[in-house]
Amino acid sequence: MKSGLIYLCFSTDFLIEEADEWRNECWNMIKKRQDCTFLFLTKRIDRFMKCIPNDWNDGYDNAVVCCTIENQKKKDLPIKHKCITAQPLLEKIDIEKYLEGIELVVVGGESDLNARIFHYD
Hints:
By secondary structure, this protein is an alpha/beta fold. Helices cover 14% and strands 25% of the residues.
């Protein structure tokens, strides 16, 4: 078996309601494969507490939760490895005071043919 980083549901959302019926099976795979790190993105962080397994506590050592942000509100959730994705970032934001405990920030613009120009400054 090869170990490494496994991205979950990058063309959908790991916490989407339609995944409720099979998500427990996925959590079991994550627990079993401690040699791998599993990263998932979600726009549905409000569903997080409903979707975690009973033995989650403050998170699994090999699970990284990356949440998209759309406003300045901060969520305190029991997540051991946290990252933020701000994309598409359409205007200037200031998240500096929220970065404690955040391991990674991903920033990007829109990606379709009609995408607005992204200004990194």
